[in-house]
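It is worth pausing here to work through a concrete case rather than discussing structure prediction in the abstract. The textbook approach is simple: state the sequence, then state the predicted structure, then interpret. We follow exactly that order.
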Amino acid sequence: MKLREWMTANDYDDASFAAAVTARLPSGENCSKKTVEKWRYGTRTPRRKALSLISQITSGRVTANDFVDLPRIDEQGALTASAALGSSLKA
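Step two, the predicted structure:
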């Protein structure tokens, strides 16, 4: 799930998501709403620490793969239907 989709479904705006990230960062570090906006629109990929926090905040619904458009793998190790369809269209 893309960050944009998760934020919409869970009533987060850029400022409230930035506050959720900042709350989990070490004292003195922060995340701006402008940074969240860039993540949401795909103009910036979060750094490793932020990716981990995003996954925590979203209960694993948004992962690093969602920022690089990798196919989803289900619990049994198989490509999801949408990922398999997408790969067959590119062949």
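Step three, interpretation. The radius of gyration is 15 Å. The helical segments are 3-9, 14-24, 33-41, 48-57, 81-90.
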